[in-house]
């Protein structure tokens, strides 16, 4: 029996222990006065009545991840259907990202200098108010977007159940930053004026990205 065969179970146990110890726990809570279908990539989806919560772990090193709320849903017994906002291909347990408009909690874990990077983004529009905050590791600076964006949404951005970002509506470089060089616009400023810490357009990094040490746990609250 070779050394690899002898020590493989030991290293496997260490890997499992390391992964579990360093996984980030996310609590997703629905404080809206209505039921939502929470969605997460990675994570899937979960029906949350008012006051209910959903916990799941995310592996260290995960990037390009997000959590959002789906509203006004109608699923059949097989778990297929459609949501008015945030729909992810008609699936109950999301396998990808949701359709605009949807308020996003975005994050990447254990990145540069072993930091977590997290933000609230309105680049896919807005459907429900959101709070995204760390809950451990001595990291206390959270983000909140609790404005009446749906009620005050400009006419050209209005959508059933939410408020679109101008990129979704116009699909131009001015709003979508396809060339990588764009700035704020009067329409993106509508979102920024109401949620100062949230992304209002794709290059809104300076005021909208926050960090915590790797291994931090987080809470996402709909309708905080």
Task: Describe the model.
With about 220 residues, the chain is of the alpha+beta class. The protein has a single domain (about 20-220), classed as Thaumatin. It has helices at about 5-20, 150, 165-170, 175, 185-195; strands at about 25-30, 35-40, 45-50, 55-60, 65-75, 80-85, 105-110, 115-120, 130-135, 145, 160, 160-165, 210-215, 220. The longest helix has 20 residues, at about 5-20. The model is unreliable at about 1-20 (pLDDT under 50). It holds the Pfam family Thaumatin.
Secondary structure tally, helices:
5
Distance between the termini: 58 Å
Strand content: 25-35%
The percent range for helix content is 10-25%
CATH architecture field: Sandwich
SSE series: HEEEEEEEEEEHEEHHHEE
Q: In this structure, how is the largest beta sheet organized?
A: 7 strands, antiparallel
Uncertain regions: pLDDT < 50 for 5+ in a row? 1-20
Annotated CATH homologous superfamily? Thaumatin
- Overall 3D form: globular
């Amino acid at each position: 029996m070779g050394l690899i065969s002898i020590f493989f179970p030991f290293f496997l146990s260490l890997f499992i222990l390391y992964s579990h110890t360093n996984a980030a726990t996310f609590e997703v809570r629905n404080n809206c006065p209505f039921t939502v279908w929470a969605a997460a990539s990675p994570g899937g989806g979960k029906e949350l009545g008012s006051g209910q919560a959903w916990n799941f772990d995310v592996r260290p090193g995960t990037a390009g991840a997000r959590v959002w709320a789906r509203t006004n849903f109608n699923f059949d017994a097989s778990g297929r259907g459609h949501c008015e906002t945030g729909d992810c291909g008609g699936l109950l347990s999301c396998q990808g990202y949701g359709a605009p408009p949807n308020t996003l909690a975005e994050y990447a874990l254990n990145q540069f200098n072993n930091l977590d990077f997290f933000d609230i983004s309105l680049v896919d529009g807005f459907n429900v108010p959101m709070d995204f905050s760390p809950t451990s590791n001595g990291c206390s600076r959270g983000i909140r977007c609790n404005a009446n964006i749906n009620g005050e949404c400009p006419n050209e951005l209005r959508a059933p159940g939410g408020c679109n970002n101008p990129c979704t509506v116009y699909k131009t470089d001015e709003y979508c930053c396809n060339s990588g060089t764009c700035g704020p616009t009067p329409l993106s400023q509508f979102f920024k004026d109401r949620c100062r810490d949230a992304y209002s357009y794709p290059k809104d990094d300076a005021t909208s990205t926050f960090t915590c040490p790797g291994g931090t746990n987080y809470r996402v609250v709909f309708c905080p």
